[in-house]
Amino acid sequence: MSTDTSALNNRPVIIGGGAAGLMTALQLAPEPVLLLSKAPLGAEASSLWAQGGLAAAMGDDDAPALHLADTLAAGAGLCDEAVARRIVDAAPAAVEHLARLGVAFDRRGDGGWRLGLEAAHGRNRIVHATGDGTGREIMRALIAAVRRCPSISLLEGVEARRLIVEDNAIKGVLAANAEGPLVIDSGRVVLATGGIGGLFLDSTNPAGCFGQGLALAARAGARLSDLEFVQFHPTAFDGPSRPMPLVTEAVRGDGATLIDDTGLRFMADQPGAELAPRDIVARAVWHRRAQGHRVFLDARTHPGADFAKRYPVISAFCKMAGIDPATDPIPVRPAVHYHMGGIAVDAEGRSTVDGLWACGEVSRTGLHGANRLASNSLMEAIVCASWVAESVNGAGRGPLKTRATLAALPSSDASGVRPILSLGLGVLRDRHGIERTIRGLYPIASGTGAASDPALVGLMMAVAAFRREESRGGHFRTDFPDTLPSALPSSLTLSDAFAAAREIVETPSLSVGSAQP
């Protein structure tokens, strides 16, 4: 395609082709908008792989207030209650809106919603589509809507490399495609680039999701928050494939249990058992494996013979591995699944840089706190997209004339970062492991190579983890196992992180041992 984008200048630019980006673009219609996607739409979006669904109080026995209570409990003291209330209140209407866009949600025989149960939810409130293919079905409908929307100009195969910023205000985007560099003038940019799972060796996320939006925002001077909180899904399929296939929590909601290789159901005596909050279940699985056992999800009785019908995606990849979930336990282990931290935004998705918004997993709205409640993420992306679009539409849009040129910045490569970050920021952490991660990432993040952006994001996460001397939600430190009486969100800028990392690197380490078994 041509690198001449002059006809597309001075309109909102949305970076990211997942559910958050697509929905924001649709909500901005009929205002002309430019949507940049590094890969063909959906190809590298975590949204496509979401099995669980959307959490919304749709049942007769449910209410947004109950949904809010479960969200706050899972968030371990770090949720913004006002933001969380606003989002869960809007969730049912968001599901109805998706249905009008053509998403074929699962229904009961009487036409009502088929609602599933997942961990830490007090009610059946998970709305599914095609069983365990919810993300795929939502993305199908959103991609079709975007492609037929005349106000959306779509550039696939275009990677944003830097944001142009003057006086703390966005002036444009420096990007590149296969034919060369692009400079796009715009005073309104929305980051919807997804999460950070691609920074880790064991993850359920696409390898291409390694915090690109966080790097763009950090280099632009934006403030980031709660980067230390990473959610490990306790039941990723324990096999050689990377990314790791996910065995959705809904299977446990249907009655499947966790057992080890001796047949022991090791979660039976825990509050909530297999449906305890994800951080608790992930640590239990981690400890059992550290003791030399393999761990399995036993679905032979529940859902039993109905497994393939209820979960066709999981059944298919189990079959490829020679496993029939109706007769064989499924081998599982924890893997990075979701990032609670992100770009610090207000209720309308605005960052601390003028003209820069964030939506979806790349943002930190305050909904998830220290530990995301299951299936709140897709819901957050869909709900917040409308508020981001409204804010973008109401912002100033005077003509811009940037004079920026794109240097020969390489496309990012996270492969060298994954082993370093995985060792120090796993399910269990301690000072030694975090320090080692900072020392390993600092010189890479300080450079200009292909790994510098992934290393920068990993470094900021490690500095945030180093500073939080407690255990809370998705951040568990074996050297600080207790939860402090009160909690505050963490906050970092790029300059903060480099200053803290430099001090650690220049100070001889006295730590010994490691939390990683």
From TrEMBL:
Broad class of where this protein is predominantly found: cytoplasm
Protein location: Cytoplasm
GO cellular component, one term: cytoplasm
EC number(s) on file: 1.4.3.16
Domain FAD-dependent oxidoreductase 2 FAD-binding: 13-378
Name assigned to this protein: L-aspartate oxidase
Sorted UniProt keywords: FAD, Flavoprotein, Oxidoreductase, Pyridine nucleotide biosynthesis
Species annotation: Bradyrhizobium lablabi
A Pfam entry, by short name: FAD_binding_2
Job of this protein: Catalyzes the oxidation of L-aspartate to iminoaspartate.
UniProt GO molecular function: L-aspartate oxidase activity
Coiled coil, from the record: none
Cofactors that this protein relies on: FAD
Pathway membership, UniProt: Cofactor biosynthesis; NAD(+) biosynthesis; iminoaspartate from L-aspartate (oxidase route): step 1/1
UniProt family annotation: Belongs to the FAD-dependent oxidoreductase 2 family. NadB subfamily.
Catalytic activity entry: L-aspartate + O2 = iminosuccinate + H2O2
Domain called Fumarate reductase/succinate dehydrogenase flavoprotein-like C-terminal: residue spans: 457-482
Top-level lineage group: Bacteria
Enzyme class: oxidoreductase
One GO process term, biological-process aspect: 'de novo' NAD+ biosynthetic process from L-aspartate
